[in-house]
């Protein structure tokens, strides 16, 4: 009997231990399921355009993403791990996990399985980011105080290159607006590239090689120097380093591209004139360089939009701004924001300003005393104007072109090179979104701006404005820290598409020679 009682007692204790272990296991599974659900919801919300919190490794006021953020969004190899950023969490999936439960299901609506989905998404779109020595990018940012003699670029390059945030409910929407410097594109683009869907650490599987050199920021230190050798020192050193890389040797550089955040003429010095000679160096003829104003006869650079003040983080911010642009009351027929450039006799700016001053239908914002340094007065002028005059200044294009279009103002050009090859971002038919008046006709007094613009029918103005409003997503660079644009393709996305097509054509043409 004692033995029976002992066995029963032991059985009861074993049962209690088993039940306790089972309960703990169920509790652990439930907690894990709850955390997974929370994680999934945060991921799903971020993909719907809700701006996720900034990753802890990202300094909000830092001009460059941290090295920890640099490792995000990499496709390690064709069949290996996929790293995706979701809110503040990093999701790491191996091949089996990716195929198992749709954790990648719905990423930007482009794929629904694992390996096959990534392959379909990134076929012919893989980009490898070259590991460039710090002196060609990060060191320039660390020495931001030295980039300009007359202003501090450190503030201008804060917030991943966007500059200080601004809020002005009268002129703007409540978020997405920054005091962005027109020469900050290299930093903005580099940070946007780190969020690109199809990055790879394997250069052999890349369709393009991105070179994160900041030639515009580097040039800003020496452009005004009389020492020509000093202007060319870093460009020559960079090209010498680039040619020694195995990635360059694979295709002779035809698959490489970089961003030069200034106009092409800053990199195309002839003789002892302005600029350095970066883009005239023989190796650079193979590489594609993206600049804010391109050459009309050189084929190794392409024009992409100047950065504007608007950097949306989701599609709803773009739609909200487009709707606001439609609501603006435009009581000014035409306007001009700029200065005369008295030292450049070939320009018609003085005549344009004089015509504006004499017309009751024109409003002038003179930039000679620094009034245009702040975004608010410029954008307020553009939002109340039907037409915005864009005569050439130091070069054929101006940042004002894109700022005015962002406000829904129809640009008026006077020189054909002012269109400067933005073929990826603007319609081929230039009359869809702009008015052209020949410089010669203004110079000779054959036409006045007022008479030409008064002759444009109201229906034509409305049609052109709606076309411009539809183009706004093409002209803005999304916030590189948190942007997820599901419906819209921003200037970066259009640029990458154009680069990949251009490099593909170069590779095909090279292959035909053999």
Provide structural commentary.
The structure is a single chain. The chain is built from 18 helices and 14 strands. By secondary structure, the chain is of the alpha/beta class. Helix 11 (315-327) packs antiparallel against helix 17. The strands form 4 sheets. Strands 4-6-7-8-9 form a 5-stranded parallel sheet. A 5-stranded parallel sheet has the order 11-10-12-13-14, with helices on both faces. A two-stranded parallel ribbon has the order 1-5. It folds into 2 domains: 118-308 and 480-512, no CATH class; 327-474, Glycogen Phosphorylase B (Rossmann fold), CATH 3.40.50.
Structure characteristics:
five-stranded parallel beta sheet, alpha/beta, Rossmann fold, 2 domains, 514 residues
The average pLDDT is 81
Question: How many distinct helices?
Answer: 18
Shape: globular
Low-confidence stretches: 33-61, 65-113
Structural class: alpha/beta
Q: What helical percentage do the residues reach?
A: 25-40%
Oligomer: single chain
Count of distinct strands: 14
Number of domains: 2
**Any idea what the radius of gyration is?**
28 Å
The N- and C-terminal alpha carbons lie at a distance of 97 Å
- The biggest beta sheet, please? 5 strands, parallel
Strand order of the largest sheet: 4-6-7-8-9
Q: How big a fraction of the residues is strand? A: 5-15%
